[in-house]
Amino acid sequence: MTESLRIDRKYCLLTVLIRGETEVNINDLLGRTIDCSCGRKHFCEIKKVIIEDGALRHLPDLTKEYRKILVVCDANTYRVCGKRVFEMLGEGKAGLFVYETAGFLIPNEEAIEALKERVTDETDLMIGVGSGVINDLCKYVSFLKKLPYFIVATAPSMDGYASIGAAMILNNMKITCGAHVPEVIIGDAGILRNAPMDMIKSGYGDILGKFSCLNDWKLSALVNGEYFCDYVYGLTDEMLMRTKNLGQKLLSRDREAVQTLMEALVGVGIAMAYTGNSRPASGSEHHMAHFFEVVGIMKDEPYFLHGIDVVYSAVCTQMLREELLKLDEPKEGYRPGKAEYEEKMREVYGDAAEGVIALQNRLGWYAKNYIGIYAEKWREMKEILAEAPCSGELIAYLESVGLDLGDFEKQYGKEKIQNAVWFAKDLKDRYTVLWLYDLLFYGSRK
Predict the structure, then answer these.
(1) How far apart, in whole angstroms, are the C-alpha atoms of residue 228 and residue 412?
(2) What pLDDT shows up at residue 444?
(3) Residue 287: helix, strand or coil by DSSP?
(4) For residue 31, is it left (φ>0), alpha (ψ between -120 and 50) or beta?
């Protein structure tokens, strides 16, 4: 039986988030239905989250009811602890599938089919051993096969462990597919703190990106009338506040800092599960990060790890907010015609262009009278834009963990970054500051 909890807008988050003064009690967010003042009931179907030193020792007990388990990893995560997980379960009980790929594993049609082929009629549990891509592939394929799955995290690198969606690249498009949450998340602090430093930086960057996405969510609620929940907003914000100053400790692999980061990443994933989508954790900064990834894959160009792209992009989107705040009133800028827009889409997105164009044709946002909405609500919009921390503060957080904004500019160049500002918004069906900036400034930097 699950516990029911009623909250209102003044509900004190600390009563469910904090044990003592420093430890986030993630499991208090599970196993209860929250009857929220937003009008929805929030629930997360994850049964257990274990983030501690030696967390792997719990695996045999957690899996005792299952008879045929498929362990999934890639070559790197097999070496980290995939082999150990397989051996703990025993060859008689577990099968093993290792993705052998050169470079990044891409969660595309080929990778999905390869995993589906390894699932048999006897398989009753899938255990992913890895981080972002392994988690997404196991989440998606287990959902298609109607199987439960566990994830053994190997790096505190992203916030998707507990989310309901799986980030896939299908038909050259970055798509968040509906799936399900894992039954169990295991994060062994000893393994997590020894992850590649770029992956730890990526997780920190993913959390810092919430400054941007939360601001976008408020903006969309005002401009587009999008659903908004104060409680879920506050939950994500609390995870951000608890993590934002940990940069230097993460750089030294401090155990408590790494554990707090992992707990925050899982907490944000639970926030996404509460709303049934990624809105509490993904906005303009994620859309730009997806742009760099999609274009990078299509054109065989380098791109950063997801969370690193996210935080660099968050600085960029904050600079857009600061530019918008200088305007006394909104005035529509140059608007390209349909032919010019589609030509630019094909130039920027290549084989993915038709899918992007079709998405925006369905949404119809280019035809919407946004300038009228902006004129009516400009004062309130500026108040929301002003809530986000300045770009200088974000850059200081970057530098605390050894990230240099100059590397972002060096990696992509001014033209590619500017293309992301103008066209990353078209990848998604979600309103962000990129739509606002596009209408008021497009063409001003030609």
Answers:
(1) 34
(2) 60
(3) helix
(4) left
The Cα 22–Cα 63 span in angstroms is 30
Average pLDDT per consecutive 10 residues, the chain (446 residues; last block may be shorter): 38 35 69 93 95 96 96 96 95 93 87 97 97 95 97 96 90 85 96 97 98 98 97 96 98 96 96 93 97 90 96 98 97 86 91 90 91 96 98 98 97 96 94 96 66
Q: Report whether 260 contacts 277 (CB < 8 A).
A: no
Are the C-beta atoms of 321 and 373 separated by less than 8 Å? no
* DSSP assigned state of 147: -
Please give the Cα distance from 233 to 283 (Å, whole number).
13
Q: What pLDDT shows up at residue 443? A: 63
Q: Tell me what pLDDT residue 5 has.
A: 43
Q: In which residue are the tokens 């239905």 written? A: 33
* Dist CA 378 CA 325 (whole Å): 10
- Sequence-distant (6+) residues with CB within 8 A of 133 are 74, 104, 105, 106, 107, 111
What is the rounded distance in angstroms from the CA atom of residue 198 to the CA atom of residue 202? 6
Helices (H), 70-131: 75-77, 83-89, 109-116
At residue 172, what are phi and psi to the nearest 5 degrees? 65, 15
Domain boundaries, the chain: 3-195, 207-226+279-441
Our measurement of the distance from residue 96's CA atom to the centroid of its chain's CA atoms, rounded to an integer in Å, reads: 28
Q: Which residues contact 107 (CB under 8 A, 6 or more apart)?
A: 133, 136, 137, 140, 166, 167, 168, 169
Helix residue ranges per DSSP H, 35-131: 59-62, 75-77, 83-89, 109-116
How many other C-beta atoms are found inside a 10 Å radius of the C-beta of residue 429? 10
Q: Which residues pair with 48 in a beta bridge?
A: 184
Query: Residues of 51-67 as b/e, b for ≥16 C-beta within 10 angstroms?
Result: beeebbeebeebbeebe
What is the CATH number that goes with domain 3-195? 3.40.50.1970
Give the list of residues 6+ apart from residue 110 with CB closer than 8 angstroms, or none.
none
The residue type of 12 is: C
Give strand ranges (E) for 294-342.
none
Pick the closest to residue 261 from 245, 280, 272, 283 (CA basis): 245
What is the pLDDT at residue 6? Answer: 41
Those residues whose C-beta lies under 8 Å from the C-beta of residue 369, and which sit 6 or more positions away, are none
